[in-house]
Amino acid sequence: MDAKEVLTHVGAIDKAMKEKLPPSALIDLLTSLKKGVVATEKLLRDTKVGMAVNKLRTHSDKAVSDLAKEIVVKWKQDVGQKSKQPAARSQDKSRATASPTIAQNPIPSPKKGESKSRVDSSKGSAKEDLVDLAITGDATRDRLIGVLYNALCLESDATPDRILTLAKSLEADVFINHKKKLELPYKKRIQTLYINLKDKKNPNLRKRVISGEISTGRLATMETHEMASEELQGQYKAIQEANLRESMVAKPEKSISDQLQCGKCGKKKVSYTQAQTRSADEPMTTFCTCEHCGNMWKFS
Fold it and tell me: pTM (2 decimals)?
């Protein structure tokens, strides 16, 4: 089945859903797709057939949902096998040129149920990996798990199962830390994690999380500066050291007067310093700070 035929089937599925046609109509379309489509990453991306079928996994009719699940599993296997073909051809070529006296070990076939690696680590997302995000029963939480998945899978060779496990665990830790309330602080925390994990200039953070060096529980509570790249952390450290040096430098003593009155709060507890800011024959400039409200002003 070529891309044009697949697009026709996608349109027919959308029409059947909108017009609420009987489940038998969807079953006929799905059966045709199952028999006629050998999935490739390009076909799934160009026709969006994977998204159309994936939606039917939660269909109210069990026969439709079961068939949709079977197709998704089949297409995942098709895409995974396609990604391994170039490597297999390369190995076959190298074996053909190897010395005949060297024993050739067969390439082990993947174990049953083993997750396939993602095809293109630079373009991955929950949709392209056909990940089922119907997890918690709450649409907001499931959507944010997908957001974290998209950040973690960037430039990663980890399997979708591994990335999904981390995304679910991270969201659950944040949810618990915010007393299981879907309020603004919870959403802002997920947004902060997404921005830092998605940062292309900070790939080390993603790698440390996926490798398990940083647990999801730890990541859920890390401050922004702790998640920053090594370059940014160096800048933060330089700023802190500069502030420390500045705090150790002697500053001119401030005098406190009860003769000066703050024009903002009316209090008469005002500290002041004086400096010659103009020519020597001009009066000194007095810099004032209200010790009560912090208002600052100057006069000559």
Answer: 0.46
